[in-house]
Structure formats: structure tokens, C-alpha cells
Amino acid sequence: MDDAGFEALLASVANLTISQRGRIFLALALAEASEDGQPSPSVTAVPRASPHSIPAGPLADHRDAPSPAAAALDPASVTEAAHQRVQNAGCPHCASHSLQGWGHVSGLPRYRCKDCRRSFNALTGTPLARLRKKERWAAHAQALMTGESVVKAAKRCDVAVSTAFRWRHRFLSAPARDKPTQLSGIVEADETYIRESFKGKRSDLPRPARKRGSRIKKRGLAAEQIGVLVARDRSGRTTDAVLARHDRASITAALAGVVTPANQLCCDGGKPIVGFARRAKIPCCILPKPGGPMPGAPTLHINNVNGYHGRLKEWLRPFHGVATAYLDHYLGWRRTIEALGDRVKQQHWLAAAMGIPVCQ
Fold this sequence. Notes:
Elements: H1 3-11, H2 18-33, H3 68-71, H4 75-89, E1 99-105, E2 108-113, E3 119-121, H5 137-146, H6 150-157, H7 161-171, H8 173-177, E4 186-195, E5 225-233, E6 238-242, H9 248-255, E7 264-267, H10 271-280, E8 284-286, H11 303-316, H12 327-340, H13 346-353
Parallel strand pairs: 4-7, 7-8
Antiparallel strand pairs: 1-2, 2-3, 4-5, 5-6
Helix pairs in contact: 4-13, 5-6, 5-13, 6-7, 9-10
């Protein structure tokens, strides 16, 4: 090859595809290995290894193993959860189930409603609408399943910490509102208290900043404690609420219609709960603290709700404090974990984030 032809070849290297460059490298290696001047064997295209593949054999290098973020990527889970939501909810504009396919956009199928004639995808009208990097949502769902911090979730998903924070509360918006509309049978109700926190707030605090690790001055009902009401029936259906005030009006706002005169309410004698039960004419059994069963009525107790309080606080402990502004999201997070159980999959969490009821 003359110099002009060689220069032309070098100028065209930038326009080669990855597979073409691989063939050239292979041809050069075979030419250098040829010692007798015979023509090199024909060069065939070698399929490029997947970036997630792990070489087999004793020479495999651990540096070729996929990162936790790459290992958890599963776009099929997002598509499956999206399809499930469309099947359950139908058109987000008119709730009609008379739909037809309308192409694909941004990796998700679009649909058109035959009744209202409007098009949509599975994320229209959900907290996940217009969020990007859908291929990493399954990894974020895995972080929710394992209860990871925002920093660990960001590392798993290979995104910025601010993005992981925004994703977390977008994913938890729907579960925070997913509560049973009515409880059945014997219902246990009791309050627990979580320390008020302005975590993440840098200015305009309503009180002086406290030193990290300091203890509360008074247990139970106090100005620095936030009341959380939990009501739970014997089948495990649970509803909860962050109480604005510890009074009957707040209890009524949380339990009205959920606990009815058809239920048997068990509590430890707190005045707001008892006042709500009497006003709503709900049979109420007042138990002495700590709420264990009495000899004459072994089925009436609040052990279940007290056990839920313990699991909730133990689960919150690794977060080192939860901002009160987002406490309802964390309550929904824990409620969804209890409702889904141990056999949960990524698409279950994705479906819950898209608004498919789990706790109802």
C-alpha cells in the first residue's frame, strides 16, 4: 500500500463501527503472528461481549463483574408493572377499559381510549410521570425492598444523591395514600411517638438546632414528639396517620369510616381514641397498659398493634432520624413492606409506586 492509500485508511478509522474495528484488530494480530508469509486466515466478525457478562474459568478477573447498579437493572420489570397498571386502572382520564395500542414512546407502550379519544401511557397521572432513566427504576425498587439509605440507593442506581432522594419520595407518594378503606372484626388502635425532626432543613427552624445524638427530655406526649396513630385488624390490614394534634378531632379524621360500629375497638384507654369511639358509637374495650389480654376476654388485646410499633421503630433506626415532613411517606413504605410480605419482587414495588393498591 502506498502512502496516499495508507493516509486515506487512517482518515476513515473514525467512521468505522465497533465491529469493524474489532475485525481490523484481529486481522493485524493474525498478520503479525504469521511467520511464513502465507495469507492470513479469513477474518470473521466476533460478537462483542456484553458489558454485564462475567468471564468463566480460573482466569476470570473480579474487575469484570457487574456493579450492583448494573446487576439490578431490569427494564422488563418496569414494562410489566406498567402493563399491570393499565389493565387494572384503564384510561387515566375516564377510567374506561376500551383501549387500543398507540405505538411506543420512551420505551413504554402508549394507548388510546376509544371512549374519550385521548392517548396516554401507563405513567400518565402517576407520581412517576416524566421521570427519566427508567432502566434504573428496578434498581431503586430493590433499594426500597432492602430499606437502604439515600446514599446507598444512589450508589446502587448510579445516580446523584439528589436524584435518589427525589426518586424515593416520588416512589413513596402513592404508597403513602394506599390505606384500607375499612377494617374488619376486632380492631386494635394505639398511638406511638416519634421525635420531631427537621432533617435537611438549613434555615428558618422553629426551634434552636439541637446536638446530634441528644435524648428527648420527656417520653410520650410532649412538644418534641410527633404522635403516630396505628389501627390494625386481626387479618393484618393496617392504617396509620401522623397526628396534627393529640385530640379527638385528629383521631376522627384518621379513623372515620375506617372503623365503624360493626367493629370491636381495643385500646389502652387514651382519651382521644375513647372519645372517638363513644361519639361514633363503636364498641370499645379499654385495656390496662401495656394492653395484654384480660383473663375473661383472651381475644381482646392490643399486642398486634404494639408489635407493629416495635417493628416500625426498629426499621426506622438505620435511617438515623426521619424528617417529620416526610414521615407519612415512611409510614406508607413500612405499611407496603408488611402488606407485600417476603415474596416481594421488583415489579410489585414498581406497581405500588404507579398507584396500584397493595394495602387495600
